[in-house]
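Milestone M4 deliverable, item 7.
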Amino acid sequence: MTVIYRDMDQEAVDRGYNARATVDDVDVFLAEYAARSAMARETLECLEDVAYGEHADEVIDIFPAGPNAPVFIFVHGGYWRALSQKESASMAPGLVANGISLVTVNYSLAPGAALDMIVRQCRSALAWVWNNTASFGGDRDRIFVGGSSAGGHLTGMLVAGGWHQAFDLPKDVVKGAVPLSGLYELEPIRLSHINEWIKLDPASVDRNSPQRHLPENGCPMIVSYGETETSEFKRQSADYADAWRAKGWQCELFETAGRNHFDIIFDLDNPETRLGGAVLDLIGV
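Output delivered:
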């Protein structure tokens, strides 16, 4: 066996980051994303395809929850190469019902877009929200971010340090974060089959690994993952939470029972679940 990362050979690395293999049929969950999100747009006020930048992909959907509402920005997953903001609003009904505005972020997809570009776009979306919350009634001093899988990674990059000045943002623009089933150290991704489309090299791994760019002052955070995730996804979450806590910052880490890599986000819509309740507590509503 030729070890390429930690104690794993190539087969083990690829298996550890093959999220689709942990469920029988991923298309079932993708269809439910689309159906729940479409229902949210049909039943709630929704400002669709609001531009946050000049590129055609740089748009967000906004679900306002009323005057001075806190804002939850959700970044979708799809291993940086699939989905959009249109399939990412399943949690809108529950959040809006609890007085929280939801913003779902679209970004350009790999392999057409490099990860550096995707990260820049998500930061631009956050900057747009901070500068324009008054346009939809939000409170820019209560902005929270979250995402699942690749969106968990991008959430980590939104709470990372060292980039705010370039976007003219305060370092504490994000008041709390909810990365789910995320990727926080990208070296094993570079060594896995995922690199066929994300095309990382050692320098881009270093630039875009949240665990390597912890901020000076971290916000409260909820880190979670599904019960049936691979051991690598679970380890990444635990390592990131440990690093956050080692800095002295608040971080709640737990496994979401009965959920997998793809359906964990459905608990965000349900305050009766541990994850949904924790999110409401984090936001303070």
